[in-house]
Amino acid sequence: MKKAFVSDCEGPISKNDNAFELTAHYVPNGERLFTVVSRYDDVLADVLKRPGYKAGDTLKLILPFLKAHGVTDREMESFSAETLILIANVKETLGRITKKVPAFIVSTSYEHYIRALCLAVNFPYENTYCTKVNIDMYELNQEEKVKLKELAKEISEMPIIEIPKGAKGLEDFPAEDQKTVRRLDEIFWKEIAHMNIGKIYHEVNPIGGREKAEAIRQVVQSLGISLRDVMYVGDSITDVEAFNLVKTNGGLTVSFNGNRYAIKNSDVAVLSENSIVTAVIAELFVKLGKAETLEVVKNWSRKTLEKSQVTEELLERFFQLYPKELPKVKIITSENMEALVRESEDFRKMVRGEAVGKLG
Fold first, then answer.
1. Which CATH number is 322's domain given?
2. Cα-flanking dihedrals φ and ψ of residue 267, to 5°?
3. Does 217 lie in the same domain as 72?
4. Same domain for 28 and 54?
5. Whole-model pTM above 0.70?
6. Which domain holds residue 30?
7. Partners of 5 in beta bridges
């Protein structure tokens, strides 16, 4: 039976959070600005479940601030290429996978970044889904530019919202965080939305949440296969709908150095600095299907892998890269979930850095 491999980009393939890095580079105190907006994104998407909003829409919310600070499409392209940091051996990993099965990247990242990545790893850009944006086409008058810079400064001075465990509504948040959410609502959906540049919120559609799930449906339809024939790899809140779509329909879902959102919605947790483990799991899935792949993962060891159907050449390469201890690969259960969340989130920060690792 034909299979398909689909992966998120930032996390499983690269260490970057390109939008975060763009904002940090071009906007004063942009690191803080992006972190505040990203947490607001988590609140709207995961807690309040606001109609019309989805995880990953941070990427459109920050565009007016980038524009106000003179960012162009050319600068987005050059910055993306110059700052690209890949997960170890990912070019080799993707090369191995694409030789065995149709492979696709479904990413919330801006197209500028995905083009740079495809060029670096020799992956076909036509097999990607990402956030399309032409920032040069939007005009910004001086009054709006000044106002946006003022708003960016205000946001960067706001407290970072902490999401209480089990929160279901805004009333479950501390008063200060409720105030922050309400003020951000005013900034984005009244003040900026009513500017000329505000049309960017209607015209740019980040590929996160349901769009990732829709992209997988398109892949399945184009290949004439079932969702149970899909292996999906992700790491964050923007992957939740994709994970759920694939998992509930019998496909294999893998969290690669994922955060709590990824761990809680995946079949398998991988903690690794090297991507070659993804090639091993993909080969198992292509040859054996989900059930037998999970059986190998359940008994994850050198001995089990040597007895599996992973090709001798790939196993030799895998053991060469891991001469002593294998990377942690675990089936996620209700019993080990919280422990894996803590361990994976700590590992994620170690691999990608504290600032990027703690984003949703």
1. 3.40.50.1000
2. -85, -40
3. no
4. yes
5. yes
6. 18-80+134-203
7. 103, 231
